[in-house]
Structures are given as structure tokens and as C-alpha cells.
Design goal:
Helices cover 35% and strands 21% of the residues. It is an alpha/beta fold. The protein has 3 domains: 92 residues, MurE/MurF, N-terminal domain (Udp-n-acetylmuramoylalanyl-d-glutamate--2,6- Diaminopimelate Ligase, Chain: A, domain 1, 3-Layer(aba) Sandwich), CATH 3.40.1390.10; 209 residues, 3-Layer(aba) Sandwich (UDP-N-acetylmuramoyl-L-alanine:D-glutamate ligase), CATH 3.40.1190; 135 residues, Mur ligase, C-terminal domain (Protein-Tyrosine Phosphatase, Chain A, Alpha-Beta Complex), CATH 3.90.190.20. The chain has a 9-stranded mixed beta sheet with strand order 7-8-6-9-10-11-12-13-14, sandwiched between helices. A 6-stranded mixed beta sheet has the order 15-16-20-17-18-19, sandwiched between helices. Strand 13 and strand 14 form a beta hairpin. It is globular, with a radius of gyration of 24 Å. The model has no long low-confidence stretch (mean pLDDT 94).
Length: 462
């Protein structure tokens, strides 16, 4: 199979591009923005980021064998001694997206776009695992899901791949539209609409407007949309989309799920009804959210053509993602490390998981701030008190200026509640605290670096 490549004709399509030594430009099959990963014959694109400026590493990229470099036009004078063709543009970040769009048009691979307020990464991982038993599948690595990550994921995809499972993230208006228009998905799924990034997206209506751009682009591409009927906003919007397949646990849907119980260790057992057939699946991940993520992934897998037994066989190979509901068992306690990120919906589901793990009766939550909630921060942090009480959490240790509001709500309740004003005091407390015969959840937004506390607990309770 002939390799995909970018040619001089493609480079001339870039807005405002000027090509130097154009007669020496050869087709390139690889694109890199990291000089450490440049391979001979590739194109190096110098991106100016928050921490590093790729223009400072152009020489390193050329030494590694870059066949051409793409730079901002105002940096041309610093590259006078570069002995490879140079392409200049006004903004290399935008040019990265333009080239990725060109690459996408050459791809025969079917693209499945996934976004949502919670569960998109886990849904991506489950779906790629299900499909990879029968097909050649590429996927977004980690959460490489923004205006840089989506183009790079496309460049890592070749025509040998039958499917690309592509995650699209956002925290500002316009970001999903931008990456979706580059990716042109054949299938699109929104896991849910929650209280995420409200500082910038204002409210759930704003979250929906932003996420729905994935549906809009996929529909214009004559793609298939997968709609979560349990999400009221998505349910109310689904009739506007023509080529749609619905799924859900609560409302009548094309693919219907039911959590019929939990294994002793807290993993859900799910029954799925689809085209008159009913099958039971043991989901090898923890929590209610994992069951929902599996139903979403299974719905796509059914539509693509996987049979029940194929899905069951591949589901057993699904593994938890680092820092996302990682349940770790020690000799006398259980640690739930869910420190990758947090919003009100994911926080609630993680707290409910504590009550579903039955091996120990004492339940502890160590919680850090949820970021980007804007004017709703105080209310949404305080609202967690009802969830903690309903799930019979015995002790709550909090840190962060917004978690202070939760602490104040808990002070008058029959629950051990301690708030820490700085990182060192919480770490010192955890160093001395025994969690014997307990189930312990650690969770907070990425910027809170709650994984540090999970490591402290592990080190001092072995």
C-alpha cells in the first residue's frame, strides 16, 4: 500500500506560505513538532507553546534528518544557515491544522469522533479495544485531544488503519468546531453534557452548543451520530439529527442498557438489549460511569458490525487508564486513585463508587478543587455534601479554596470533616494517618496534583 505523503503541491495550499529552495522539496511521510522525535525525511513544524518555542530547536531537527522545516515568517532570519528547504507562514499552529486537513482528505480510514463532559477518554479506550480484535485501529494517545493533538493524531494515522478513534476536547468556544472540521468524522458520539469548563462555556447550554459542533460537522459529512438518551439536553436535541442511533439506561433507545448488579469488588454487570437480543456483560472497570462508557462504546461497535461474542471477548482485555478510577488493593485497605481531573458529574460518580465497594465499611474521600466552574464554583462544590451523606462517606478531607465551601456544609453533619489550607499540612496529616480497613478515594482537578497525596497514602500504609 502506497504511503500517504505531503507534497510541494500541498505546501503551496497553505495560507500565505512562502517556499524557499522549493525545487529541493520532496514528499514527506511524517510530520513532527518535537525535534527529539524527528526521523530522516520528515517535516518539522516549529510550534511556539507556553513553555517551549520550537523555533529554538530547528537546528536540532535538521541534524536529526528533517527534510524540510515549517516556521513562522518572522523567524526566517534565525534560520539563514539551515541547509534544507524552508516554508514560512504567519502562524505555524494554524498551518499544522491546515496540513492535517489535507492529510485527512487523503485518508481512507473511517474516523470516530468522541467528545463529552465526562467519560470521553475511557469510552475511546474501550471502543478501540473492542474494535482492534477485528480491525486495524489507531486512537488518540492519552488525552492528546486539542488543536495540536488532533492534527498530530491524524498524522499518525495511515491507510492501513480501518478506524481512528479520535478524542476531541475543549474548554473554550470554537475549539470543537475547529478540530472537527479538520477531522471530518464519519461517526460522532457525545458521551454527556455536564457542568464542565463553565468559566468559559458559561452554562450547560453553552457546553452543549460547543460539544454539538462535533455532531454538526459529522452530519454535514453524512456521518452517523450516536446520542445518549439519558442526557436530557442530548435527548431533547436528538430529533434534529437525521442519521442517528440512540442509547441509554433510562429511556427507550435503539440500544438499551441496564445495570443489573455489581460484582463484589464494585465492577458493574450490564445487560444490553439490541435488535431484540439480550446479553449480559461483566465490565472490567469500576463504577457507574464505566458502565455508561461501555454502553456508548458497545453501541458504536454494534453499528460497525461486531457481534455480541466478539464484544464480550474483547471487553475482557479492557484496562483502567492511569489516574482514572484506578482501584488498588493493599493488604488492609483499598485506594481509588481518580486524580486525573474532576468536574461535578465525575466527582459524584466517584463518590458513589465508594459505597459500591463492599470489602471495607469505612469510606474516606480526599478531595481537591474542581476548576473552571466560574460563578457556579461555590454552589457546585457545596452541593457535593448531599452526595457524600447519601453514600454514607465517613470522613472527608479537603483542600483548595473552593472545597472550603464543601467543608462548611459538612461541619454540622455527622461526618468527620477536616479542611487543610495548604499542601504541606495535608501531606503531613496523611503521612501519619492509618487507613486500615478503609476504602479511600483521592480526586480533584488536574491542577490540584492530587496524585501526590495518593502516593503519600501508598507509601505510608503498605
Amino acid at each position: 500500500m502506497k504511503k500517504l505523503c505531503l507534497t510541494i503541491k500541498d505546501f503551496f495550499q497553505l495560507k500565505g506560505a512562502v517556499l524557499y529552495d522549493a525545487e529541493r522539496i520532496r514528499p514527506v511521510t511524517k510530520v513532527s513538532i518535537d525535534s527529539r522525535n524527528v526521523s530522516p525525511g520528515s517535516l518539522f513544524i516549529a510550534i511556539k507553546g507556553d513553555k517551549f518555542d520550537g523555533h529554538n530547536f530547528v537546528i536540532d531537527a535538521v541534524k536529526k534528518g528533517a527534510a524540510a522545516v515549517l516556521i513562522n515568517s518572522d523567524k526566517l532570519s534565525s534560520c539563514e544557515n539551515i541547509d534544507v528547504p524552508i516554508i514560512t507562514v504567519s502562524d505555524t499552529t494554524l498551518a499544522l491544522g491546515e496540513l492535517a486537513a489535507i492529510w485527512r482528505k487523503k485518508l481512507k480510514t473511517k474516523i470516530i469522533g468522541i467528545t463529552g463532559s465526562t467519560g470521553k477518554t475511557t469510552t475511546k479506550e474501550i471502543l478501540s479495544t473492542l474494535l482492534s480484535g477485528k480491525y486495524k485501529v489507531n486512537k488518540t494517545l492519552g488525552n492528546n485531544n486539542n488543536h495540536i493533538g488532533v492534527p498530530l493524531t491524524l498524522f499518525s494515522t495511515a491507510n492501513r488503519h480501518d478506524y481512528l478513534v479520535l478524542e476531541l476536547g475543549t474548554n473554550h468556544f470554537g475549539e470543537i468546531k475547529y478540530t472537527a472540521e479538520i477531522a471530518q468524522p464519519d461517526y460522532a458520539i457525545i458521551t454527556n453534557i455536564g457542568n464542565s469548563h463553565l468559566e468559559f462555556l458559561k452554562n450547560r447550554k453553552g457546553v452543549f452548543e460547543e460539544k454539538a459542533e462535533l455532531f454538526n460537522v459529522a452530519e454535514s459529512n453524512k456521518g452517523t451520530l450516536f446520542i445518549n438518551n439519558d442526557d436530557l439536553i442530548l435527548f431533547n436535541a436528538n430529533k434534529k439529527y437525521k442519521k442517528r442511533i440512540t442509547f441509554g439506561f433510562e429511556k427507550q433507545s435503539d440500544v438499551e442498557g441496564e445495570i443489573i448488579g455489581y460484582m463484589e469488588d464494585g465492577k458493574p454487570i450490564v445487560r444490553i438489549n439490541y435488535v431484540g437480543n439480550s446479553s449480559i456483560y461483566e465490565v472490567p472497570l469500576y463504577g457507574e460511569q464505566s458502565a455508561k462508557n461501555f454502553l456508548a462504546a458497545a453501541t458504536v461497535a454494534f453499528e460497525i458490525g461486531l457481534r455480541t461474542e466478539e464484544i464480550k471477548r474483547r471487553l475482557r482485555k479492557t484496562q483502567a487508564i492511569d489516574k482514572r478510577l484506578n482501584v488498588q488493593r493493599f493488604h488492609n485497605f483499598i485506594l481509588v486513585n481518580d486524580t486525573y481531573n474532576a468536574n461535578p458529574e465525575s466527582m459524584g460518580m466517584s463518590l458513589r463508587l465508594l459505597s459500591q465497594i463492599k470489602e471495607y465499611n469505612y469510606r474516606v474521600a480526599i478531595l481537591g478543587d474542581m476548576f473552571e466552574l466560574g460563578k457556579e464554583s461555590k454552589r457546585l462544590h457545596g452541593k457535593l455534601a448531599n452526595i457524600l451523606l447519601k453514600n454514607k462517606i465517613d470522613a472527608v478531607y479537603t483542600i483548595g479554596k473552593f472545597m472550603k465551601h464543601l467543608h462548611l456544609k459538612l461541619k454540622s453533619k455527622n461526618i468527620e470533616a477536616v479542611h487543610f489550607n495548604n499542601r504541606e499540612s495535608l501531606k503531613k496529616f496523611l503521612t501519619k494517618k492509618s487507613f486500615a480497613n478503609s476504602v479511600v478515594l483521592v480526586k480533584g482537578s488536574r491542577g490540584m496534583q492530587m496524585e501526590e497525596y495518593a502516593e503519600t497514602i501508598k507509601l505510608n500504609n503498605k
